[in-house]
């Protein structure tokens, strides 16, 4: 029972971190209709930026994270302006390939800028873990939970109360109608990418605290897909719930099935993704696209 | 689109001629010239090194062709081509190693088995459309990678390696660069003819209809799901064939070689070469394969030298930038570029900037 | 023209310029004049991909070494040209790299990555160009008569595992615990699995208690369940065969679960990368094996490189501070150097061919490379070199040697019986 509790809690905590990554993905999808295959690479860049500010510039944590948020938002804006705006009306395949190509570029750029050796990783969340019975929770995970909750609240408010948020909803609902009502779709796309960049900055920072500043940060990008298929490509709360489910699924699968099915942990969420798509081809919370002839 | 009506003034005088594989004389000349260059000129002129490169390009081109059938012609996005290539490669590897069958048996077996696997996968996957299909194929790619690592009976045990034994195919020694090249070129040629013919038939036209307007296609009486399955089968069989050729070319299959980046490279090849274009598949494969070589060998001549540590990352970035350039600037790829140039000369001096 | 053409052009130009201003220290050219024809050494690199950290360390080390050699008169007056071609750990690219280097006339190749060395074993025999791949690859390649041109030259996975198991067993027995419990965290790809299979066989052969293997998926971001499973098995030693980022994850998680001091790592995994990544407190007590002497103990070849760099006013590669991986590269470089020296002695002023280098390798006898290698002997029958490893431990944030040149029991079934 102890083992189950430990695995469950671990799964929930890791799942929350997966949600954090998926938040950026959902924001981009919501605000610009694009599927971002380069989410892992954004996390990678963010992680390296934070480490750079912390070590080479010696900035205190808050400033380093703030600077990273700024730069990542800038990166998001540049991506939207330089890569995606010229491809506004291209086919789905082109858009998919565009973000994949972007990921390749970022993956090649990081070692050029910072070298291939691991960066010094300053442990920011020092302090002993909290113990809850048989389970112990690291500080960094607690902070991550706080951040996710804060984002949930913020984006909940943002998308239902603020002008920009409502405009984003409108654009994601029906682009043409939103345009005809006066929404500046390009500005909204840009805002979505900038916000996603900022969110990715947080995600990158927290993930780098957990697994270090190295190319391992790329791996987390792959978990985005099970999360968003389960939770809906455009749902923030869905991403959080689905993230928890995916985390728990991976944790329990690894904990109990690693001997009979070695290495199946990360594959289980993918099987779940395939099963979900089989029975609900638009995802659990997705909307069926209305196709017009 | 495979067959386009001829430009500027060529009229058919018989239905037979119009529906032929190479309807115009220039098509026929081009086709025979390609065959001549590939099978007569290159073996005489090329060095072993270039025969090796051309063989690699041939194997990749077959994979790109397979993906083009599915994505370019039928509009179904797949990020799992490498997984199907792996199925073909391991079929060939196991049959050749355990039962010592000749390539004439192992390759068709690889194609059929991969196609069968694809049918199973497709029965489930092809109800999913568009973006979700892309994500599903991505998931499938990862699942197959897991299988490659852990299904040791098939994938060569803990080492994950299967060695393909030396083979002779008639006069061709498949361990000799020339033999490999001729074999690969031959198989590729046959597949090219197959695909060209496919898109002359009703089935091929149905694929294209499904890509363009699948609701209308269904309304016209095309059983969309069945034809999607057929496209999936054809595409995967060709991908499996590509994997099988890879097994013969390298002589060794390792479970780490059929990852996501290979699938992404195939996508890049068809986008760079030209969607729905058979010459485009080959051009795209050649481009993706040769550009790193030219950068590596040519840049030092321009005076730009990189340390090996930085060169590889520069190449990565340039690859991504190249893909983006093609996506933004010339969505019809290299074949489209070639057509533009050809049309310019064909229409000269009336090739004014107007329609594009 | 479409709008973003200027942007694209700028992007490409910036990339090229940025790359050109990238760090120095990689390609060494054949410098200096000599009468003897230059010998070309090929390096088929894997600086990108799953074994990137190893590819970088090994590639940097061999480049630095031959740069130093050339600056100091070459090998008996013969300059060495080193050409590195990146393969991105993709076999077709590796084959192309090999073919290109072959066309350029290379006499010997250093190959990074198991998949590549496996794929090139056949061509190397057909083309009579020896390939060297220390510390990796198929253990069966030590059979010199079966694979005449494949030279592991240094302990492969079964040897490393056997030696590591023997060391911990001896240490454990000396401390009063006679049958220590051993768990192995195996990296999912074949090299990792091979290592754990060897640990299992070695534990059973040496009389330790083998408990289980726990697989670490190549795509895992979180390894807590695996560490918990290992912990539940009550191990005395936890071996692992992960690399770089996963190794950092393993170390950090193991540390959090109190298993940090029980970790024993393979020869690709502990370097400054993992030390920095996991942090010195967590890495404390980590045990690992190495093919060569650690840079921390300042072996003579490394000192020579440092002196040469200081005198010549250039920097060694960044990975020179990297311990394991760079040292592994130096081992390879020194073996190649010795083989070339033997070949040069044989051909005098002539051109060195691949077969000469093969013969040169097979003359290597009790070679210690100025103190960096355990005594290595390569014969026509046995290309294994040696089976001995050095063991070290991290104490106070630094690598401390604890045992020199120990070898483990032979593992029947995992390595060929060379009679």
CATH level-1 class of the largest domain in chain C: Alpha Beta
Q: How far do the termini of chain C sit from each other?
A: 72 Å
Q: How large is the count of helical segments of chain A?
A: 11
Strand segment count of chain C = 12
Radius of gyration of chain C: 22 Å
**Strand/helix succession of chain A:** HHHHEEHHHHHHH
Question: Can you characterise this structure?
Answer:
- The complex is a heterotrimer of chains A (293), B (356) and C (419).
- Chain A has 11 helices and 2 strands; from the N terminus they run H-H-H-H-E-E-H-H-H-H-H-H-H.
- Chain A has 293 residues and is an all-alpha fold.
- In chain A, helix 5 packs across helix 6 (163-173) and helix 6 crosses helix 8.
- The model of chain A has no long low-confidence stretch (mean pLDDT 87).
- With 356 residues, chain B is mainly alpha-helical.
- Chain B is built from 15 helices and 4 strands.
- A two-stranded antiparallel sheet of chain B has the order 1-4.
- In chain B, a hairpin with a 2-residue loop joins strand 2 and strand 3.
- In chain B, helix 3 packs parallel to helix 8, helix 3 (48-73) packs antiparallel against helix 11 (224-250) and helix 12 (260-273) packs parallel to helix 15 (333-347).
- Chain B is globular and about 65 Å long.
- Chain C has 2 domains: 26-155 and 297-386, Rossmann fold (3-Layer(aba) Sandwich); 157-290 and 390-407, Response regulator (Rossmann fold, 3-Layer(aba) Sandwich).
- In chain C, helix 2 (52-71) crosses helix 12 (324-347), helix 3 runs parallel beside helix 4 and helix 5 (157-174) crosses helix 6.
- The longest helix of chain C has 24 residues, at 324-347.
- Chain C is globular, with a radius of gyration of 22 Å.
- The chains are: A mainly alpha (293), B mainly alpha (356), C alpha/beta (419).
- Chains in contact: A-B, A-C, B-C.
- Chains B and C meet through helix 3, helix 6, helix 11, helix 13 and helix 14 of B and helix 1, helix 2, strand 2, helix 3 and helix 4 of C.
Short description:
The complex is a heterotrimer of chains A (293), B (356) and C (419). Chain A is an all-alpha fold.
Furnish the topology, listing elements before pairings.
The complex is a heterotrimer of chains A (293), B (356) and C (419).
Chain A: H1 2-32, H2 39-55, H3 61-84, H4 92-114, E1 130-132, E2 135-137, H5 139-161, H6 163-173, H7 175-180, H8 185-211, H9 224-231, H10 236-257, H11 267-279
Antiparallel strand pairs in A: 1-2
Helix pairs in contact in A: 1-5, 1-6, 1-8, 1-9, 1-10, 2-3, 2-4, 2-8, 3-8, 5-6, 5-8, 6-8, 9-10, 9-11
Chain B: H1 15-18, H2 25-45, H3 48-73, H4 81-99, H5 103-125, H6 130-150, H7 152-155, E1 161-163, E2 168-169, E3 172-173, H8 177-198, H9 202-212, H10 214-219, H11 224-250, E4 252-254, H12 260-273, H13 278-302, H14 308-329, H15 333-347
Antiparallel strand pairs in B: 1-4, 2-3
Helix pairs in contact in B: 2-8, 3-8, 3-11, 3-12, 3-13, 4-5, 4-6, 4-11, 5-11, 9-11, 12-13, 12-15, 13-15
Chain C: H1 5-20, E1 39-45, H2 52-71, E2 80-86, H3 91-103, E3 106-111, H4 114-127, E4 131-132, E5 150-151, H5 157-174, E6 181-187, H6 190-206, E7 209-216, H7 224-232, E8 237-240, H8 244-256, E9 263-265, H9 272-278, H10 280-283, E10 287-290, H11 300-312, H12 324-347, H13 354-362, E11 388-395, E12 398-407
Helix pairs in contact in C: 2-12, 3-4, 5-6, 8-9, 12-13
